Amino acid sequence: MNHCYLPLESSIAELDFSYNDEVEKVFHFHNVLKKKIDELLGETYLLPDVLKAFKEFSDALVPFINPDIDYGEGQLKEKDMTDKYDIYDKYFEVTRVIEMKSGQFIQQYLDTSAELIDELQYTSMSRGEIAYILKAWEAANEIILDGKSPSPDFTLSERNNMATPQHNDERALYRWKLAHHAFGFFMIFSGYCFDKAADIIQNGGSAEAVGNWLDKAAHLFRGTTACMEFGNSFTASIYRSVIRPDMSRANDEANLPNGFSGTQNLEYVKWRSRKKNLLNIVKQKMEEGSISDEIVDMVEMFRAFYLEDMHIHSIIAGRMVGMEKSLLQEGFMKPGAKAVKLTAADVLRSMAAMREKETAFLMKN
Fold first, then answer.
1. What is the C-alpha separation between 54 and 71, in angstroms, rounded?
2. C-alpha angle with apex 218: 206 to 260, nearest 5 degrees?
3. pTM, two decimal places
4. Residue ranges with strand state E in 280-349
């Protein structure tokens, strides 16, 4: 698995926009993707045909893997191991890039996407979940390509130096970390869409324009949920014997007082702030009676994905850790203290209830 490089503040808006042939590469990706969406989600049913379609999809994009990305002196942020975000990034093999150029960002996005596409064919994921990843890529590509004029003469060079781990333990860690890389990109794109939608609502723009951004934001977020299914595409015994001990070792090395948690994921924390801003604006406009039903309907679609996300996470937790506590729960348990009866899945179900409460105002419309 390749190391992942992401913007310093987890935002597309901070990118220094300059391109070489990256737009043409995204255009190529988008064309292959559109063809495979129709094929994989509608025309192909027999398993041999499905596997063949995935293989063709992978082969068409393999040249995107292992790009030569040139980072300038001082662009790569040095990690501060007292910073919770840097601790999380180190474990998941992420480095932050100062004044990241759009071309660098796109090359990394394509590399991560091509690696994930190559691995999809070997997982046990349902095509229903894979569909959400495909739709998230479609939305991300459309954002990149908006207003661009790719050259029709572009030819993709043939190269591939990737060596996917073959041992079960290493392959599980590969999927686990690669899923978090793709999760990061979809979160960045989704948050960008929330900012765009919020700006248009605040300035009285058209419902159609808002709806377009909200549709993309929702599907990109739902793609992050599917990434977690991809990242857990192995047995519970592998999770308990490989993934959990690996994270525990990283936790001990970093001397984290309360264990690993999603609140150390910069992409999620920044996305959550953008999501909160959008919901606050929508709630205010609903109270004023100055927002259209069409816009509220689109926010309700996001709400459905938002609630579904936490329920799926609780199902994954139940499948993987059963009656055990999460690493975060274990971190809070002091020696000799009374045992906590709540499981990791219980905690996630309570968080789902909190999301219900957070978005309840939408159902009063």
1. 32
2. 140
3. 0.92
4. none
Q: Nearest to residue 245, comparing CAs of 229, 224, 258, 260? A: 260
Q: What's the Cα-to-Cα distance from 325 to each of 9, 240, 308, 359, rounded to whole Å? A: 31, 12, 22, 28
What values do phi and psi take at 68, rounded to 5? -90, 95
For residue 268, what are the contacts with CB-CB under 8 A and spacing of at least 6? 187, 262
d(CA 137, CA 66): 19
φ, ψ of residue 97 in degrees (nearest 5): -115, 125
Buried b (16+ CB within 10 A) or exposed e, 62-92: bbbbbbebeeeeebeeeeeeeebbbbbbbbb
Phi, psi of 329 (to 5 degrees): -60, -45
In this predicted model, what pLDDT tens digit does every residue of 257-277 receive, in sequence order? 556 677 889 999 999 999 999
Tell me if 286 sits within 8 A of 348, measured CB to CB: no
